[in-house]
């Protein structure tokens, strides 16, 4: 990218797991990157600070501590910076936590997202990409999950807020011509991952000789997607600005596209793995057997996720393909280095 062509991009949630990796990729490719994050304490904030330390070594990266739910602050940021692109990764994460603390999800995932939409609308942002989630598929059991499927039956408040994001974004695309792309991520894992996610929790417990909690007695399948594959998908879509679909028909509405400049994609590995097989790969990588607490399904959870990625592959030429064994191996190597475990 030539200096005169340098694009300014806002990445919200840049101290988070996916945000950190995306910011790193964008700075390496010459984007002028600004990130906002409120550094909340949903999980150990030290890992967020350590991610930021690595990013702040780049001259074309800038961090602003800010809550996207702060309307005035967000209005001022957008007006001052005049971003070319926005990638919204800031959100209150976690299906199970949404049962305990619903207000955090309304404030960040709905009010905060509305502030981002307004900032994009009033400041001529060329393209808004926003993180949705595989959780929007909810009670749908039509496998693999397709962006053309109905997603009107969420099973958690977290899923409902992500579906709300898709609806709000479509409304802004329709009313104001704001190009929006929603990305449904499937069980992301990898180095610098969130401490509340299964891979982190399992490895920590196994290394400390504690039992791991295995929900639904292990009868679950997940489309585990390595972080580099997620970032590659996002990166390829940033400058692929959606346009209205001329074939869209209101009598047979396609949920994945629109008469407006709006598009949805799944980003998943397209290879669901059973939870017990996932644990076996961890055990093999660590050379240690896990003690298991077999528990019933948790409220708001689903038994299986499986991404249909045909549209992503068709439009970007990219297919996520990192083998689970390689991804877990990379995570374990990072974990041991980060926590100084020999």
Number of distinct beta strands: 13
Strand order of the largest sheet: 3-2-1-4-5-6-11
User: Structural class from helices and strands?
Assistant: alpha/beta
| N- to C-terminal distance | 41 Å
Series of secondary-structure elements, N-terminal to C-terminal? EHEHEHEHHEHEEHEEEHEEHEHH
Q: Taking Cα atoms only, what radius of gyration do you get, to the nearest Å?
A: 20 Å
Major sheet attributes = 7 strands, parallel
- Average pLDDT number: 95
Task: Give an overview in words.
This protein is of the alpha/beta class. The chain has eleven helices and 13 strands. It has helices spanning 17-28, 45-55, 71-81, 95-100, 102-122, 157-176, 198-207, 227-238, 275-286, 310-316, 324-338, and strands at residues 8-12, 32-37, 61-65, 85-88, 127-133, 180-185, 188-189, 212-214, 221-222, 225-226, 262-267, 273-274, 292-294. The strands form four sheets. The chain has a seven-stranded parallel sheet, with helices on both faces. It has a two-stranded parallel ribbon with strand order 7-10. Helix 3 packs parallel to helix 5 (102-122). The chain is globular.
